[in-house]
Design a protein that fits this description.
Layout: H1 9-14, E1 17-23, H2 30-40, H3 49-60, H4 65-70, H5 72-77, H6 82-98, E2 101-108, H7 120-140, E3 146-154, H8 160-169, E4 175-181, H9 193-201, E5 206-210, H10 216-225, E6 230-233, E7 241-242, E8 248-249, H11 251-258, E9 263-265, H12 267-272, H13 284-289, E10 294-296, H14 301-304, H15 308-319, H16 323-335, H17 341-360
Parallel strand pairs: 1-2, 2-3, 3-4, 4-5, 5-6, 6-9, 9-10
Antiparallel strand pairs: 7-8
Helix pairs in contact: 2-3, 6-7, 8-9, 16-17
Length: about 350
């Protein structure tokens, strides 16, 4: 196979992309954090927006998932009012659209935004309203985007059933799925079986953070016990693959590939939390070659100082990927989205394929 032609970052930004794994509280603009912190009296490491942005990346770049998660204390602290949540969601939609993202699923944990007496429903309603506003502004700017929302339950807490019911309650207003997140070690997904069984009875989609800091047992439980539609990260599935000229897949890896279970890989974030040694050594190269359902995501744009376009550019530099591979990742993501089939197909056929046909010509 001949190598793909090199592609420029500026051109990647203009190309349509899809995003499945992005945390709302991990993607705030530094300047917004500074302004919102001043309003509520929250103390930040610095009030200089540019310096604060650098601080988040440095603090998250520790090789530890637990240390990485500590940075969220500052973003969550300024997202405790309906106005702040609405603003953050609005800016999120605009920022993603400006990066060429035409479809995004953005997740957040409603239970983390109750410190100023909002109800769970009010939290969700504020975020959904912000996404509607941001999407409208993006369309006016000539960069239309469709945003779906995932509601996340924290795996160390005991509110997953409540959050699952909240997600289903708002399913016709922009919430497209459910997720659990947080430190994996010591908090297996099977602790939340009641929630997952409820979601299955309601014919509702869900993904599970698994196979990031913890290994194969986390992935196995997420799929075989809990019935996850997708794997949040799932990068440790590589532990079930024996390397060599012709890599050998173990039973679990073969099952994940054969069932086309999507992997929500987040290269830069995976390096920061120690799940991968570097971009060049990230298992995404092997998993792509073996034709797993690989998708490329940001996880937390603020903490990783990244965007979907930057992630694609990093992979292009590391693995020699060109437009054919970027299109493949993008279509994989759209095929794996939690919106109805006809909507996925429309975006693929009317937005993504025509754009890449020109780029590949």
């Amino acid at each position: 196979m001949s190598p793909s032609p090199s592609i420029r970052y500026e051109d990647i930004v203009r190309a349509p992309k899809a995003l499945l794994h992005d945390h709302l509280d991990g993607g705030l603009r530094p300047a917004t954090i500074v302004e919102l912190a001043a309003e509520v009296g929250h103390e930040l490491p610095t009030t200089d927006a540019e310096a604060l942005g650098r601080w988040f990346v440095a603090a998250a770049d520790s090789g530890s998932l637990e240390r990485y998660l500590e940075t969220f204390a500052h973003t969550v602290a300024v997202m405790q009012t309906a106005g702040a949540l609405r603003r953050v969601a609005r800016e999120c939609a605009q920022d993603l659209a400006a990066d060429g993202v035409v479809y995004a699923e953005v997740r957040f944990a409603p239970e983390q935004h109750l410190e100023r007496d909002l109800t769970l429903d009010q939290v969700v309603e504020a975020v959904l309203a912000g996404f509607v506003e941001g999407s409208a502004l993006a369309a006016e700017a000539g960069t239309p985007i469709r945003v779906g929302t995932l509601l996340t339950a924290m795996r160390h807490a005991a509110r997953s059933q409540e959050i699952a019911e909240l997600a289903v309650r708002h399913r016709d207003h922009g919430v497209v799925g459910f997720d659990i997140a947080g430190a994996e070690a010591g908090f297996p997904p099977t602790r939340h079986l009641d929630a997952f069984e409820y979601l299955q009875r309601e014919n509702f989609h869900f993904t599970i953070h698994a196979g990031e800091a913890f290994g194969l047992p986390s992935i196995w439980q997420a799929i075989q016990w809990c019935g996850a539609d997708r794997l949040g990260h799932g990068v440790r599935i590589v532990d079930d693959i024996t390397p060599g000229p012709e890599p050998t897949l173990g039973r679990l890896a073969a099952y994940v590939r054969d069932k086309r279970i999507p992997l929500e890989l987040c290269p830069s974030s995976n390096v920061q939390t120690g799940a991968a040694a570097s971009i060049a050594e990230h298992p995404i190269g092997l998993l792509r070659d073996l034709r797993f359902r690989v998708t490329v995501n940001t996880d937390n744009r603020l903490m990783s100082g990244t965007s979907v376009s930057r992630e694609m550019a990093l992979l292009s530099d590391a693995f020699g990927y060109g437009w054919r591979e970027v299109q493949w990742f993008t279509i994989n993501a759209m095929k794996s989205a939690f919106i109805p089939f006809d909507e996925r197909l429309r975006i693929i056929d009317e937005v993504i394929k025509p754009a890449y046909a020109k780029l590949l010509a």
